[in-house]
């Protein structure tokens, strides 16, 4: 059956479903190509007068075998999206039998197979590929699931309700929407543990993996227990079932999924060992385990009324997992890393053709809205709310939210109301953060007269698709004031800006202060500050706010690189002097020093030039960054060996903040050293490495030094059986390639026998790395665009969701010169012209082209 023509769904059209689902009972008879799904669902008319009156059940790619109402066969009207039929005006029982083919499901949505194992992904609208159902988040019900099959392990949501030869039953007592349904069956082994909740409930915990991966579960299990404890301590939230299962799956479109009591993870986001995972992998795994666990309250017990409210659960849960990471590791380092990520992923989205509000108002394919804007900007909006009301009021509002909405499918209006009711504030204007897209630009002017210092801010948000005019937003601006001697005369204070232009005065000051503005990055805005290099250098040296200190250096780095590109200037030695004092200060946290040592990404520099009305030249940007890095290496040549020594870890490997900070700084030092010694230190590190963090950074430097051939081969031979390590091998070769080689390297890798393009991790390893290789992807002759387009066209038939996500590599195409634009447009048009293009990809490409 062919998919129907794309339809646009609007938030304003929301209507409740006309029936309440009281209970769902499912029976699965598993078979790779002929799985039978028997459903028994009790419906009761919804008394809400606003509810839809048409009885419509979603269902896609299903073979209906039989349908009955109250035991009698019924005739139904089937379309590609679902079915309708006549139903009684009172309570009734619906029974259906459908057949599906999990082994043929390459879209990895609904019930599918990965390496011989059955698994599901239902968010957002995948349950309709399993059986006929009102597949919308506001329809919540209890589920009983019986699984029949020879697989030794058979799992579903909730608590175990019995098992026997060839069958297992599960019962989930908590009403839930269908997108949280999950089923797993296969030959799996578990890493077991237990957790006692604060009220004394004993919970069985398991991480289920394929045989052979048992040794990679311990870290994830510790992260799970830490998350359970943290949510009790910080949010007062306890776990609510007898068992919590996590399953690792090799073929998965996203990172992980919070199915009730049965989280399913992309294996890359849960399996870890020192030999095969980097420190960055460990930190990410810890955060994702926490994220999915935290969803049990923010997402599952309180879910979303409709998919427009996605940020209700995702923004809040990202905010919660960032608090968790800050508490477990370093808060300033986490904040700076999050800002790097926001500026690197969310800002380009918000400032380009894919810009959409944190709460979108329309979509064709909801999977295209699992974006940096919904997730990361959604979390920033909650951070602002927290900052505006203060920590105590935030905690009270959250308690009220859980009390008032437990068991509900809620909206952003409900969410804001608990803050209004807790604080008495009117959040009407604040709500614009949810409805206006685009990144506000915040200009600041300073004035000093008679002991009074005045900061005047002006906000302006450029037009975005569908939103030509913007109203002023509430912007919390955290500022601090420093004396010329570096003392802080005003500790961090949050200014609440509500007007288009607004002044704030500070009096009683003995001398003109230096302002540190947007401390902790208190709002997701672009700060436009005309500040002298001397003042920036002063903040780099003295600011007590680590984020602003880091950002001062970042601004100086940016200015220096832009001057190198435009006027062929030499690297700014005044900045390097200031930077040197931080980087070589061994009283500071090594991971903070590593962040200081990094320069803005090439894509970010391209965006800066574009915003200044210039056309970025990716090759010139690449050359300038190379020149700067070389200058850094030469300037510090004598001191690098000493610094490298400071980063050595003598204790046995642990992926904690302390050790990983040292290794991160060590990797930054190695990349400078490699410019001077041609790869000798990298080779030594490669040969001695006993963990993946050291091995991989050594390999990257060897490739960059042109000395990687042998190591690339030996790495392959060492790790060819490990899929996750091989993903790194594929990605690194593209990422570390010279700009004029990246496309050829990627193309050659697609011909490697281990390039399994149907596996999303492997596809992303190669093409995600290519898209991230700024000068390589944006090659003047368009070869990068063409290669990616070829592969997106190929992948779309099999896996629309991953194809559509990868399209965002093209979102910045209008920054560049006419030649590159023509190549990008041609590539996008070629994708668009593909017969039978999926709704997912067609929506993305048409938005990008507009
Ligand atoms: N809710 C999941 C998470 O953020 C993501 C699921 C995304 N799935 C999708 N089909 N877009 O934890
Ligand atoms: Zn999430």
Automatic annotation (TrEMBL):
<keyword id="KW-0645">Protease</keyword>
<feature type="domain" description="Peptidase M1 alanyl aminopeptidase C-terminal">
    <location>
        <begin position="534"/>
        <end position="850"/>
    </location>
</feature>
<comment type="similarity">
    <text>Belongs to the peptidase M1 family.</text>
</comment>
<feature type="domain" description="Peptidase M1 membrane alanine aminopeptidase">
    <location>
        <begin position="220"/>
        <end position="433"/>
    </location>
</feature>
<dbReference type="InterPro" id="IPR014782">
    <property type="entry name" value="Peptidase_M1_dom"/>
</dbReference>
<keyword id="KW-0031">Aminopeptidase</keyword>
<dbReference type="Pfam" id="PF01433">
    <property type="entry name" value="Peptidase_M1"/>
</dbReference>
<feature type="domain" description="Aminopeptidase N-like N-terminal">
    <location>
        <begin position="105"/>
        <end position="180"/>
    </location>
</feature>
<dbReference type="Pfam" id="PF17432">
    <property type="entry name" value="DUF3458_C"/>
</dbReference>
<dbReference type="InterPro" id="IPR037144">
    <property type="entry name" value="Peptidase_M1_pepN_C_sf"/>
</dbReference>
<feature type="domain" description="Peptidase M1 alanyl aminopeptidase Ig-like fold">
    <location>
        <begin position="438"/>
        <end position="529"/>
    </location>
</feature>
<dbReference type="InterPro" id="IPR035414">
    <property type="entry name" value="Peptidase_M1_pepN_Ig-like"/>
</dbReference>
<dbReference type="InterPro" id="IPR024601">
    <property type="entry name" value="Peptidase_M1_pepN_C"/>
</dbReference>
<dbReference type="InterPro" id="IPR042097">
    <property type="entry name" value="Aminopeptidase_N-like_N_sf"/>
</dbReference>
<dbReference type="InterPro" id="IPR001930">
    <property type="entry name" value="Peptidase_M1"/>
</dbReference>
<dbReference type="InterPro" id="IPR012779">
    <property type="entry name" value="Peptidase_M1_pepN"/>
</dbReference>
<keyword id="KW-0378">Hydrolase</keyword>
<dbReference type="InterPro" id="IPR027268">
    <property type="entry name" value="Peptidase_M4/M1_CTD_sf"/>
</dbReference>
<dbReference type="InterPro" id="IPR045357">
    <property type="entry name" value="Aminopeptidase_N-like_N"/>
</dbReference>
<dbReference type="InterPro" id="IPR038438">
    <property type="entry name" value="PepN_Ig-like_sf"/>
</dbReference>
<dbReference type="Pfam" id="PF11940">
    <property type="entry name" value="DUF3458"/>
</dbReference>
<protein>
    <recommendedName>
        <fullName>Aminopeptidase N</fullName>
        <ecNumber>3.4.11.2</ecNumber>
    </recommendedName>
</protein>
<dbReference type="Pfam" id="PF17900">
    <property type="entry name" value="Peptidase_M1_N"/>
</dbReference>
<dbReference type="GO" id="GO:0016285">
    <property type="term" value="F:alanyl aminopeptidase activity"/>
</dbReference>
<keyword id="KW-0862">Zinc</keyword>
<keyword id="KW-0479">Metal-binding</keyword>
<keyword id="KW-0482">Metalloprotease</keyword>
